[in-house]
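Fold these two proteins, one after the other.
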Amino acid sequence: MHIGIMMFSTDQTVQPAPLARLIEERGFEAMFLPEHSHIPATRRTPYPRGGELPPEYYRTHDMFVGLAAAATAAPRLTVGTGITVVPQHDPIHLAKAVASLDLVAEGRLIFGMGFGWNADEIEDHGVVFKERREVAREKMLAIRRLWTEELASFEGKYVSFGPSYLWPKPVQRPGPPVVIGGAAGPKLFRHIAEYADGWAPIGPRTIMEGLPDLRRAFEDAGRDPDGIRLHAFDHRGEPGLVEHYAKLGVERLVINIAPARQAELEPVLDGLAPLVDLVA
């Protein structure tokens, strides 16, 4: 199992390039960055963890700019989006951004995606919040065509474009691994089985309870369930928990750490570094 680190990199923390070097130097395999385009001041949507929304949510760097800097600064590091809120992106621009990042990272990109929890934010992008899953589905189907076909077109309810060229293509074919974040459920699992490669949940119990249903969804879609790629996100880094994730067949555990400046961050990473040897 690989171990990666995810942190909100903002204008008030260590920047993406030096963050990547700190992570790589300690033997971690990957660096993930989160995404929020903006945070509307209306704040109609409660913070899922309760209380006030932490300020890093509206100070975070553009994820693709940050990961491009990281991939250049730390050439052995896998980089990942954790996660891309697909409904709020133009699919043509997103296809190009992801493919370009995969090229810059020399095929070391994991494309984590999701549907978003902040209705205020998503609706500012012209998307009806209740329709965001179907919007994301069409956008991903269109993106797959742009990644794989020399002359691609798409006609749907939410996405439509005529025959078009789009380069660069991703280094990884038919595209970087796509893992979808979210809680277990038949709707999510249908999406994963249709157009993604795996699942990126939070917590080992979620995996234990949901994986049998995800395997059945893959079988129903005519896909091999043994090919499911499991990622996991967790803010905890206890050795026993890490070993538990490894036994569940998780390919990559991404440990979320609090945003910090370099002097505060170094001892945190030093404390987590022994986990790399634990699962090597």
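Now the second one:
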Amino acid sequence: MTASINDVARAAGVSASTVSRALRGRTGVSDEVRDRIAAVAAELGYTASRSASSLASGRTFTIGVVVPYVGRWFFGTVLDAAEQVFSAAGYDVLLYNLGAPESRKRFFTKLPVRKRVDAVLSLLIPDEAESAALRSLGVPLASTVGVARPGFTVVGIDDRVGAESAVRHLVNLGHRRIGMISGSSGPLHWTTPIERRRAYLDVLAEAGIEHDPALEADGDYTVEGGERAMTELLAASRPPTAVFAQSDEMAMGALRALRRHRLRVPDDVSVVGFDDHELADVVGLTTVAQPVAGQGAAAARLLLRQLDEPDAEHPGHVQMPIRMVLRETTAPPRPRGPQ
């Protein structure tokens, strides 16, 4: 038998009205209670009935989601967390994977989501024309990438602060030859690699370390790219004693390259990543942790709240917390190593 809202309420130890508010992203429910209700709803297989609500509200009970790379870990994790929130509240997801330039151009030209969705979650950064096209839909808009922009609720982190903490950690350990594996070939208009590179350069300057362009390499935000980039850095006339990888996946590729070159981590080379990927702890990676799934869930809840409370004031930007996680891949440089 299909679980009812009362079944969820009894199992979670709350009222049916609290279940309704929690699953629809409304205010008045603590995060702890909201998470408990979502977990119980998922366990019981409960989803809110849409038929009556749709007739009364004229909604489609569908959320449009646009992504640049649905197969990448970051975007997949955000999408999965958001979809769970939408599903628990009785909404379907209409997904558009816009990694190819032609598919992106076609989407923003034709806007196939018009009159088909109640809101849009964008996991790519639209330019001015694309932003205007999305605003023309007249539905709530949210994103988990980039900075605040008119008409959108953006849930994200401070990339610059996070990258500064990573590079500063290496400087404080005593490293002077600090390389960086970036993702300059990422999605169109993506500001993340730009902000993280600025942080890298700022910390080097702050520490009085001259920037060496030979210590930068593009890793394409993939494990394979990170391995190629680390191999390139090792071929420099004066290789780095430490490397900041702008993502954990690139950092894992760097670790593989170092192992292939019979170099020990962190004795020969220290490595720090960014994200706190689900496998980061497995490989003992020092990294900057960001709540990737939390950003997807928060953005989804804010969209649902805008749908249920259209006249209320809603935040334009929500900044999520980040923190350094120290594990086994960083240590002071060996005295005899190149500096």
